Amino acid sequence: MLKSMTGFGRAESTRGETSIVVEIKSLNGKQFEVNLKISPLLKPYEFDIRSLMQQTLQRGTLDVSINIRQNGATRPVVINTDLAKYYYQSITMLANQLELPQGDMLNVLMKLPEVVTPSTDQLTKEEWKDVEDTLKEALTDLDIHRQDEGQMLKSDLQTRIDNIEQYSLKVRELDPLRKDRIRQRLEGLLAEHVGKDNVDGNRLEQELIFYLEKLDISEELSRLENHLRYFREILKDEDPAKGKKLGFVLQEIGREINTTGSKANDAGIQQWVVLMKDELEKAKEQVLNVL
Question: What cofactor(s) does the depicted protein rely on (predicted)?
Answer without folding.
Answer: a divalent metal cation
